[in-house]
Design goal:
This protein has 211 residues and is an alpha/beta fold. The protein has a single domain (5-208), classed as Rossmann fold. The protein is 34% helix and 20% strand. It contains seven helices and seven strands; from the N terminus they run H-H-H-E-H-E-H-E-E-H-E-H-E-E. A seven-stranded mixed beta sheet has the order 3-2-1-4-5-7-6, with helices on both faces. The N and C termini lie far apart (38 Å).
Length: 211
């Protein structure tokens, strides 16, 4: 029988810390972030309301699982929204993390969350296409666009060793087939810790042109 994320019992903060070992101080900072998100959610739509009862699995674990695959160095998080995965990674100590988000209200939330948690995060309140390029070790994204579109946005920031870590669902193979028409990619598929039907796409040696 296929297990869906919706049938799993909600994850607690302590459950999270058993799956992603962190210090008590880091867990407290993540808990502060969670409290702030719930408070702001009453005013602006930061995440899908149906995901709130399982916030630690649907957003925190989903984001934090990328940490094990990040190279050292700056991270660029595309379309950060409420800070997933970028702000979680910054709180876990993978900084600096550059959060790119064009929604001004979400940027206000991100600034407050980064301030309260002491995360090494830089908030870019603009569209991805207008962001001035700078070198990064990794590009991350979640629930934002197709693989081909994400690579198009990431291209100005890609260096020889830059990794792309994208959280993806069931249409992943279809998106990779489409992306392969324009891009050469070394692909690693990593099963998701948070979603039985999801995975992490770890893309390396990314450049335009078919192999």
């Amino acid at each position: 029988m296929t297990v869906s994320r919706e049938t799993l019992a909600p994850l607690t903060a302590d459950d999270f810390s058993r799956l992603i070992p962190v210090s008590r101080e880091t867990l407290d900072r993540l808990s502060l972030y969670a409290e702030l998100l719930i408070k702001w959610q009453a005013r602006i739509n930061l995440v899908g309301p149906a995901t709130l009862p399982d916030l630690w699995r649907r957003h925190f674990l989903d984001s934090a699982q990328l940490a094990a695959h990040l190279p050292a160095g700056p991270v660029l998080d595309l379309g950060s929204g409420a800070g997933f995965p970028g702000l979680v990674l910054a709180i876990l100590g993978h900084g600096p993390v550059h959060l790119v988000e064009s929604d001004q209200r979400k940027c206000a939330f991100l600034r407050e969350a980064a301030r309260l948690t002491g995360a090494e995060a830089v908030i870019h309140s603009q569209r991805i296409e207008s962001l001035e390029k700078f070198p990064v070790a990794a590009v991350t994204a979640r629930a934002l666009a197709s693989v081909a579109k994400l690579l198009e946005w990431a291209e100005p920031f890609l260096g020889p060793g830059t990794a792309c870590l994208f959280l993806k669902g069931q249409r992943c193979d279809e998106e990779l087939t489409e992306a392969a028409k324009q891009w050469h990619i070394t692909i690693e598929r990593i099963p998701s810790l948070s979603d039985p039907s999801g995975l992490i796409l770890h893309l390396r040696e990314v450049h335009r042109g078919r192999p």
